[in-house]
Amino acid sequence: MQRCLKYIVLVFGVGNVLWAQNPDMEVAGFEYTVIPGLGEVGIEKYTANLNFGKKFNKSVLGFGASYDSYNFMFNNAAIDFDTQSYETIHTIKTRLFYRYSINNSWFATVLFSPSLSSNLEGSLSSEDLIMSSAATVSKSWDNETKSSVLTFGISFGTAFGKPQFIPVISYQKMINTQWSYNLGIPRTKLNYSFDLRHKVSISASFKGLFGNISSTMNFKDLGNLTDTKLQYNALDTSVEYNYRIQPNWTTVIRIGYSPWNQLKILDKENKEIYDFEIDNTVFISMGLKFNLNK
Predict the structure, then answer these.
(1) How do 187-193 and 179-185 pair as beta strands?
(2) Are 20 and 134 in contact (CB under 8 A)?
(3) 10-residue stretch averages of pLDDT, the chain, 294 residues long
(4) How far is C-alpha 151 from the chain's CA centre?
(5) Residues in a beta bridge with 270
(6) Tell me, what's the pLDDT at 145?
(7) C-alpha–C-alpha distance, residues 178 and 195, integer Å
(8) What b-and-e string marks burial along 24-34, b requiring 16 or more CB atoms within 10 Å of the CB?
(9) Are 106 and 79 in contact (CB under 8 A)?
(10) Which site in 57, 98, 167, 236 is 20 to 30 Å from 279, CA atoms measured?
(11) How far apart, in whole angstroms, are the C-alpha atoms of residue 11 and residue 48?
């Protein structure tokens, strides 16, 4: 089943787009990330994303779907339980997005994103489902050469691991045709465009995974447990290079460093069972994006 899902990923492709901040840049493509040295743990990640949007008079309505496959490699880790069921986590998300223009400078955004995050080894249940969502209000300032957007609101999701409410605040500014930046939570990013084909970005962002282990697991001191959780958190800092092959297709390579990482197993009540105590590490990500609107 894992191999079949990866073929589906390759067909649909990926693009990681924050609709709530930039709904006019829906993309599709594929991304592969490898994190080789988290102590005695390594990670491979395959990501796919497909988004559609439709503009109306004062609003934008969008729908998207994405797939993530996390492959954890517990190489020589000294662990006294079977880690096989924790090696692969599948996350399938759907997104419904709506943005309404209150007037020429104010707009409101609602994002609803039900997702399934599981190792898919047992029967599906409510433990495999996460109801992520976000609601924001934005103020924009525009002139002929510059633009800026201030966004604030609240979201519910797994950017910091366990599903929880997360404040959303960001300030985006287009300084000129070459420089732009975004300051905020969960991502801060600085962009420089050499020309229409070449673009470099520096960013820092929080990433999170919260996957249900639907199979029954046996722990030496706790016995058999069902619906344990694998929680992964990271702060990623990276340099990204984008090369536009043609007007619609762009290749991406990203090299980064994670100064803070966590990988834990939790029980059904989200109490910690085991901490892998992973290290800081470098990572590399490669991908191909397709811009649907250019």
Answers:
(1) antiparallel
(2) yes
(3) 35 33 59 84 92 87 93 79 92 94 93 95 91 95 79 92 90 92 91 94 94 91 91 94 90 94 92 88 91 56
(4) 19
(5) none
(6) 59
(7) 8
(8) ebbbbbbbebe
(9) no
(10) 167
(11) 9
